[in-house]
Design a protein that fits this description.
This protein is α+β, with helices and mostly antiparallel strands and 373 residues long. 29% of the residues lie in helices and 27% in strands. Strand 1, helix 1 and strand 2 form a beta-alpha-beta unit. Helix 3 packs across helix 10.
Length: 373
């Protein structure tokens, strides 16, 4: 170690681990505190697979961050000795007018990423599992695929541990002093040169002024088994999203031993992150209504699991990175699209903490308001 200082990171999800990875490369000592086991099944990074993509609709700031994120993912695969990414492309089903299409096409053109519209008569044959009765446009894009969080988080934990990171599992942080670089966990005080709060849906308990800018949001996810005659079609499917008001959802096909996963992207902005993760009837009511519109012969699918997860959500889905006190740094980078940008989020935090990039600039880039040079 070059001895640049000790950084205490609260949260062992993708953002906390990515920040540790980028700091270690710069010669910092790192300690990570997690209130549960590592990985923590209560955390939003606990999942079978996640979508990554360059198509971002009107969120053009985030679209132009994606090439940088992909570059860092490739660097991680080299460090891990294995890739936990599968390129599938993405398909979007549009049911009514939306600003998503224009923003996406302009961004993809600028990044030289191919996309195409699929005639509806061809889409019927290509997507036999989707109800296209009210779909007005089908768009396929390159630059998208699946990330596998279980494997990524476990791999990063092992990598960091081998390189000297100290992990404090089952250590719930109950207080921080960002002016002096201390935190309290399990009744003990720990001191570092810097403190990073990357606690996901629990961050506002340590940084109360995060609310009401970012609030926890309980989201429904369902894992399903397709009917036998559609298994092959699903095994070859891209990641998908339906963009209708009533039908809005995202779909991850069953690849590399994962299950078919469908999630609700309409934010509830309610709930307590300590609640049970089994989804209730209330949790899945809107998603079930959407699936009856999206999936052809929905009643033939078997539900394997109903799950609730938590994001932190801002009004415009922007990420938050900013200083807190003299020695603290806050990261709240979720809003349903935090995992795909996790490596870049960690890199930006490391740049700020190492003094390589002004904190104010990192704040603007993280919020999607400034391009990353």
């Amino acid at each position: 170690m070059a001895g640049k200082g000790r950084v205490l990171i609260i949260g062992a999800g993708i953002v906390g681990l990515a920040t540790a990875w980028r700091l270690q490369k710069r010669g910092f000592e790192v300690e990570i505190f997690e209130q549960g086991p590592i990985p923590n099944p209560m955390g939003s990074s606990w999942d079978e697979h996640r979508i990554t993509r360059h198509a971002y609709g009107e969120f053009t700031g985030y679209a132009h961050l994606m090439p940088h994120a992909y570059e860092l993912w490739r660097e991680l695969w080299k460090d891990l000795g294995a890739s936990h990414y599968e390129p599938t492309g993405a398909t979007y089903f549009i049911r009514e007018e939306t600003p998503w299409y224009q923003g996406t096409t302009e961004s993809l053109d600028a990044m030289d990423i191919h996309f195409r519209e699929v005639p509806l008569n061809k889409a019927v044959r290509r997507y036999p599992m989707i109800n296209l009765d009210q779909v007005t446009k089908v768009v396929e894009t390159n630059g998208a695929g699946l990330l596998f969080p279980f494997r990524i988080v476990r791999g990063l934990t092992n990598l960091l541990g081998a390189q000297g990171t100290t992990f404090h599992a089952m250590h719930k942080v109950t207080a921080i002093d960002p002016e002096h670089g201390t935190l309290t966990a399990n009744g003990r005080t720990f001191t570092g040169d810097r403190i990073v709060v990357a606690a996901g849906a629990w961050a506002d308990r340590l940084v109360p002024d995060l609310q009401p800018e970012a609030v926890p949001s309980r989201q429904a996810v369902m894992f399903m088994l397709p009917p036998p005659d559609l298994v092959e079609a699903w095994s070859e499917a891209s990641v998908m999203a339906d963009l209708g008001d009533a039908s809005s959802c995202y779909i991850l096909p069953p690849h590399r031993g994962t299950r078919l996963k469908i999630g609700d992207h309409v934010f509830t902005r309610r709930g307590d992150a300590d609640q049970d993760r089994t989804a209730t009837d209330e949790d899945v009511a809107r998603l079930l209504g959407a699936l009856k519109l999206v999936l052809r012969d929905f009643d033939r699918y078997q539900v394997l699991e109903r799950k609730a997860c938590y994001y932190t959500v801002t009004d415009d889905e922007h990420f938050i990175q900013r200083p807190i006190g003299a020695k603290g740094w806050l990261i709240s980078a979720c809003s349903g699209h935090g995992f795909k940008l996790g490596m870049l989020t960690g890199e930006l935090a490391a740049q700020a903490l190492a003094g390589e990039r002004p904190a104010a600039e990192v704040t603007e880039i993280a919020a999607g308001r400034q391009r990353l040079a």
